[in-house]
Specification:
single chain, alpha+beta, five-stranded antiparallel sheet, 14 helices, 25% helix, 21% strand, globular
Amino acid sequence: MAAVDPAYVTAKPVNPAGLPTSYEHGGRLTPEGSSVDPILVEIVQGTLASVEMEVETAIGRTSRSPMIRDAHDFRAGIHDRQLRKLTGRSYSALVHPIVRDYPIEEMREGDVFFHNDVYESEGGIGHLPDLCVTVPVFHEGEVVAFVQAFGHHDDIGGAVPGSMPSIATTVYEEGLAVPPIKLWDAGVPNRSALRIMTRNSRMPDSLAADLDAECSACLMGARRLGELFERYGREAIETSFDAILDTTTETYRREILSKIPDGTYVWEDYAEHDGVDEPQLHTQRITLTKVSDAPADPENGRPAGPRLIIDFTGTSAQAKGPINHCGDYVGGNFLKKWLAPILRNLADTPERMAELDVNEGIVPLIEMRFPEKGTLLTPIHPGPTNARTFVILRLLGVLAGVVAKAVDGKMPADQETIRYTGVYGKDLDGNDYLMREVLGGGSGGRYYADGEDTIHVVPDSRNLPTEFTESRFPFIVERLGLAVDSGGAGEFRGGLGYEKHIRMLKDGHFMSIADRSILACWGVRGGKAGAPFQVVIDPGGRDEREVDALADAEEIKAGQVVRIRTTGGGGWGDPLARDPELVVRDVVWGKVSAEAALRDYGVVLTGSRDAGDLAYDADATTAERGSRPAWSKEDDAFFDRGPGYSSLADGAAFAEVDKVDKV
């Protein structure tokens, strides 16, 4: 076997959780310039993707809970023995906490490791319902790789069903936290540990079944990878691993980082509430510096050349409520891979964008700088984290916004974020039930196309099928469609969110963990913000009321309807520049109302949709648009945050950083 390059990345002696980090990680497996067969690299890369998909397919077919089986809110990942993520089809958790607590040389075939403790996960787990299993891959008696899966499970205990209490002020209210443990020891399950976890869950049977599915699928994946090593040998496979990651590094350096001009750019966005304090602007700020000729930094595994420096200084203090996210671990390793997909929008074409994977190869190109402990991104234990999506998903938009300032807006407007909605109570047979759903929303308009409708930001996830929910839970889905006018107006319109109506057949409770109910998905370069999230119980009835976006136990009576409208994506470009024919088409399709066609786009319609002769008056439209001021880059804000922003910003129409000439 070839000698290993000694330039490993060595973790600091103590991580932010105060735990020792004696393991080495991140370095190459083979020396720089090792010869590699390009055909074998293609075979290995295809096999990795195939194994990862086979693991996910097995979990999806053998799990029990709706969140895993039907909503597909789980991920598999494959990592090498240096803990580097090799696959790029999806994101995954980290192997670091396992190797930290269980040295590789002490692992045995058939071992399965488990953890969900946010503060001991090295940043790979965001909240306690995300349970993670990790299986080492062996070749000739030594660990050569890892197969991992983590997913959002129905219930792991805590103050409310679903383990996501919106008013939590400590992690102790959020459920059972398990540091890294050996769940299977050389093929023998740890029944005692499983019993402890299921005893703390309101859904013990589905939890046990899901964990069994995940452990079995990862063990199967480990066997598949072991066969790959047996077929081609360890040296050839590890040389291929390095080549795969090297290709990603070089591709992003050449095709993506080169599109960002050297300089420093600043932008920020906000979570609007934390469930405990009154709504306010919880700031997430990024100062982005692009350097084309950064010197080599071998101690931290960064090569010479182009580099992005992402500095989170200016991010708000740790929230009292559960919107905090532990990001400052392993140099932000998880966050780098989480945020990097946004950079793909700089690819030359949408087709090329779809070809770019995000694996460990992007890590050397990004340097992250975190503020001191005690912020939204650097919380101190036992700060609550169950709604950390308000921060970690918002950061995707902050990075998109700060890059948009650097490239004259050639990035998408703001997209939907995860929100959890659901109902729970007693079903028609008197048994406890919990239906929780991750409904998507609209993506942002782009400089070349409209945003997509009802997308789900978690890859491959989906809403629950109506046929399934109606057969299992005591309600009827009376409507599931597009929320008209929810997409932000623009030359390229934002995508639409969902509108879903649920009629209860028995008294129950509604739950919601969502943001963007006051603020909205921002528009860029003259585009307007999308419509915010909204839930109304008994719309049009005598008990009509709007429900807060953070709700744990809102009562719903039998016969009442819950109307859910999810966020629309932001618009891109001045709406007055949109082709009137596209506006007419949108009205015909029911995506834009006739009122909004005139109000938002200045298009004067003729005829009617019902009669089938809808059109527009060209002269009247030109006159109408001419009477309105066009968007100006010099005079107007580069971003539109919607009317809700001023209500939280002391009446300000926009933030100082929203002007494109501000750094």
